[in-house]
Amino acid sequence: MTRIAFASCCRYESFPHIPHNLKQAEWRVVADTNPDYLFLLGDQIYMDYGLRFFSQEYIRSPEKLTIDQFEAKMDAKYSQQFSVPHFNNLITKMREKNALFATWDDHDFAWDNALGSDVPDDKKAVSTRLFKQWVLGQEKPDDKPIYRYVDLPKDNPVARFIILDNRSYSNKKSMLGETQMAFLLEKMQHKLAHTFVCSSLTLTQGGEDWSNFSDEYALFCQAVHASEPNVFFVAGDIHKNKLLEPNKKRPCYEIISSGISVNYLALPFSFDDRHNWGSIEFDENSVTVELHKVKVSNLGEIKETECTRSTLSLLNTG
Fold first, then answer.
1. Tens digit of each residue's pLDDT (9 = 90 or more) over 50-72
2. Would you give the end-to-end CA distance of the chain in angstroms?
3. How far apart are CA 164 and CA 175, in angstroms?
4. 8 A C-beta contact, residue 224 and residue 247
5. Partner of 37 for a Cys bridge, out of 99, 142, 221, 284, CB 3.0 to 4.6 A?
6. 294 beta partners
7. How many angstroms separate the CA atoms of 119 and 99, rounded?
8. CB 48 within 8 A of CB 58
9. Which of 104, 188, 205 is nearest to 149 (CA)?
């Protein structure tokens, strides 16, 4: 069996009472499960969060920053996040075995709910370069798009993972853009057992889900129904764990884990805290999903972990 871990939405500032060297112990919990691969599905940092009257980094405030201020702030946030020991230890371990994959979402792309068409080219260039440097680990960032695919496990693949970029090419009518949409439909055609489409945005949950982009969504649904491999959609964004079965609206399983270290609504109360992450075990004939919830003390200690485990029904095996 191959095991991937996936997580999204990590805001350093959410729990200021926890000392820096103890922050985000959730990453240690992930590391202790010894995943073969790690997928980061967006919002590795938060350029903005919260309402104007309660936060100095209120929603959409980065729009008002100059390009120099924008770059300095984003670089500082990445530096801060990657200096967190639990996070850095896991990232280092996964990079050493070439097992880290990632995309971004709105808060590490530009600002809350940002579409590509909303963001000036100079700020997109800065965020792209810093994402590739800090998250993808590229000393000299390449010119390749953030969206890509990989067949896993690498020594004997049984599943294709297609990693989307939901932000760079988006506008009010399109989430992926024509070129990326063509890439997705092409890479869904293969002879492996499974396809996992990995996205920062969900298919059907939350205010920005892909079903709002009706033309592209219809094409994706058609591709799923025509697919020989089993198709699964893996996402983050909404600060919740969810496993949703296919239905008339949803063409495939939707697997969501979001909020590994963040507040749900930016409220300073423990009921608003989120410490969620997910894992998927698979081989050619089976797929099992685990959705984890961690409870953390005020000092950053792990108090309790909960796990919901589900073996998914497959249309095609072997």
1. 876 667 899 999 999 999 999 99
2. 14
3. 10
4. no
5. 99
6. 305
7. 31
8. yes
9. 188
